Every structure is written in structure tokens, then in C-alpha cells.
Amino acid sequence: MKLSTKIFIALFVLTLIPSVWLGQYFLAGIIPTDNGFTFNFSVLGIIGIVVMIINQIFGGILFFRFLRSLSLPKAIFFSVVPLTIVYGILVFLIADITRYDNATAKSVRMLLNLEKGNSYNTILWAVLLSVVYISALFLIFLLLCKPVSRMEKIVNRLSDGKVKDPHFKLGGGKQFKEIEHSLNKINYNYNAKDNAIKQNDLEIKKFIPKEFFKFLGKNNIAELELGQQVKKHSTTLFCDLKSNKSSEKISLEDNFNFISSYMNTVSPIIKRYGGFVDKYLGDGVLAVFSHPENALDCAHQIVKAIEIKNKSRNDFKVESSISLHTGDVIFGIIGDEDRLTPTIVSDVVSFVERQNQINTLLGSKLIFTKTLLSELPTRYKLYYRYVGSLSDKTLGQIAIFESLEVYSKDKREKLASLKSNFEQGVRDYNDCKFEEAKNNLAEVLRYVSDDKPSYIYFNRASERIENK
User: Which position has the higher pLDDT, 283 or 379?
Assistant: First the structure.
């Protein structure tokens, strides 16, 4: 029992005795008359009224606390029974008061206009008393069952997963305190589990890009199923990083740190331009973009970032080799039931890897296909040149272009002015017109001596002429 409850009991008992003794002076101040009652309270009568009111307040508080200590059915019973007894007594007295002839009864009859033969007023007073009784019951049930309404709302929110409150409060009696404790325990476990899922989801998204979930229309790893797939028209970027030192000449640890360092440069750029890394391929990376212009901008930025990083290193340096192609790609889940692997599956992937072999062969930095070029917005400004074509069983013959944006402004402008010479030299080489090819390519090299693609084609044309 709480200390405050013990204090209220003591005060109730202390005020009960004088209120009973002073009750006679209170009753003596109520005087029956022919028209009702008059009131003439003495000092003790007034004191009696005050003491009885205080006693009733303490009694009400104790009764309310008593109800709170009970379960809901018992609380309803012990609150309704006393009220019902009082209601029954009052109805009985109103219906039977005409049988009494004492002064008090006569005054009550006069005050309420309840004379013999006037049953209409008796019914009206009984109805009024019943309305008061029903209203009192309604208020009691409303107050006692208020925690039930709160509990219903909390349970609905818990079931919908929309709970943000760290702690619930129901109020009500002892039974609701136990329910409140259980609900808070459920809420704590739910939040702990939800936080664990979110944390797990964040950890998983370090390995599986969130864009992959978006493409598949899923929210988290738990929703992924083996065999799920969706076709998307996307641009694939293949970036290969080549060190200026052979991997055999450096330790495994240094090689790993070297690759990791450059990947930490490349990956954030891919994310910045709206792409995501599908897989890391040793010293290369395969990324996917929804828009070709984003992929091309990203590729240009990667080349610049690597050049800047190379300037800050004295040991290992790299050359980037980037290939881009646009086409239909299948985003899906492969593997088995024990291990699911999200990946992209398409001829585009194998094609862009083969495309990068041309990139390596020509010594160029960034090449892309005609498919990507045709899908660039008309407002997109780009210096480029034709460097050859690549045949594929599925995709057919596809023209390959080199971006000139990766070169310095002076070199870019020179190469752009010599674009027709270079492209004609490439076409002549493909048509086995090696003398014409050599002459056109020599014109390019006369102004840009360090142009690697021109140098490669020029040497090959020379070799073919010599072999003849």
C-alpha cells in the first residue's frame, strides 16, 4: 500500500468520527415547513457540513483508488452496485412517500409536488432519477473503459508498424498496468527487431546496391527470391585500371591496397552520377546507369579523377580504360536457395568487356558504341571520333567511337580538326586500302604525334604494306 493511501485512510477515519457526531447539528438545521424546508444551521451545524464534505472527499479518493487496484470486471461491479442501491432506495421512497405522515415526509411531498392521486409527477420524478442513474453509469463505464480505447489504438498501431512512441501509457487499474507493461515490452522488442532489420539492411546495402532493390521492386533482402528478374534498358560501364608496374613486382598486400585506393576514388563518382556498381572485377569495375549521358559524364570524371590521383603518387600510377555500351540488361537473382546473388545478365556485359579489349589495343582511354551515341540528348555536346567497329553474334556489327573530352583542350581541338583524316584512315584500313590509310593517319600524327590510336593504326597499315 502506498504511503499516500495510508495518509488518506487516516484522514478519512479522523474526519468520520466528528462528521457522525456533528451530523445531528446538521440535521437539526434542516427544518420542515408546509412549503418544503428552511435552513437554519448553527455554528456546529456549519462545521458539521464542512467536516462531512471533507470526509466525503477523502472517502471518494479512497474509493477511486480501491477501484484502480481491481481488475476491470470487479471495478465495474463495485462502482455500479452502490450506485444501483442508492437509485433503488430513492425510487422506492418517491413511489412510497405518500404513505408517511411525519413532518419530513410532508415537506418532501410538498417540495416535489407528490400528493396522493398525483401519480403523473411521481412517474416524472422516477424517470428523471432514472436518467441521472443511466448518465452516471455511462460516465463510470466511460472512465473505467477509457484504457481499453487507448489499448485498442496502440494495438492497431503496433499491428500496422507505425509506432514511434518509446513508451505507452494506458492509465486505469492494476490489470491495465500489467497490460501496459506487456505492450511496452512488445513495443521494445518490436523496435529492437526493427532497428536490427534496418541495421542489417544497411549492412547488406554495402554489398547489394539499393538501386538493385529498386529495379526489382523490393525493399530489402528478405523480399529477394531466386529467379526474380526484370529487363531494363541501361548503359553499362566497364572500367579497367592498369598499373604502371607489373603485379608480380609488388607484394600482394601492396597490390591490394593499391587497387582499393583507386576503387575508393572510382566508386563514389559512379554513385554521384546515379549509377551503381554491379561487381568488382579485380582491378576493374562493372557499373550500370539508367541514362547514357550520366554514364558518359561519369566516365569523363573518372578519367580526370585518376589523373589527379596519379599526380599525388610517386610509386604506383594507373591508366584508366573505360568502355560504354547501351542496351537491354536483365537484373536478376541467381545462385541457389542457400546463397542468392543479385547481378546483371546480358550479352551487353560480355560485349562491353570485349569492347574494352579494343580500348586496350588502341591505347585510348574512353570509348563507347553508336547505340549509346544515338540515345544521347541532342543538347549534349561531345567531341568524339570513329575508331572502328566490333561484330557480335547477337548484337551484330556495332560502330565504336572514342571520346576526345578526356584530352587537354589543345590536344582535343587538334584531334577534332583532324577528325575526318583519322576516320577516313580507319575506314581505309578496314577496307584494306593500307596506303590511303597510312597517308591519312600520317597527317594526324604530323600535328598530334602522341595520338596513340593513330599511331597503332599507322603501324598496322605499314606492317600490312610490308607483308604484301
Answer: 379
At 401 the pLDDT is 95
Backbone angles phi, psi at 47, to 5 degrees: -60, -40
Handedness of CA 314, 449, 356, 271 (dihedral sign): positive
8 Å CB contact between 389 and 399: yes
Are 241 and 318 in contact by the 8 Å Cβ rule? The answer is yes
Amino acid at residue number 359: N
Q: What are the tens digits of pLDDT across the range 5-58? A: 888 888 888 888 888 888 888 888 878 777 777 888 888 888 888 989 998 898
Mean pLDDT across 342-370: 83
Percent of the chain with pLDDT over 70: 80
pLDDT single digits (tens) 414-447 = 999 999 999 999 999 999 999 999 999 999 999 9
* Measured CA distances, 395 to 280, 392, 399, 456 (Å): 25, 5, 11, 26
Residue (of 359, 345, 295, 323) closest to 238 by Cα position = 323
Query: pLDDT grade, residue 323 (50/70/90)?
Result: very high
pTM for the predicted model, two decimal places: 0.57
Let me know: does 326 contact 349? Beta carbons within 8 Å. no
Q: Is 17 exposed, middle or buried (0-12, 13-18, 19+ CB in 10 A)?
A: exposed
Sign of the dihedral through C-alpha 344, 347, 348, 351: positive
Instruction: Take residue 18 and report the three cell numbers written for it.
Output: 466528528
235 in Cβ contact with 289 (< 8 Å): yes
* Grid cell locating 155: 494495438
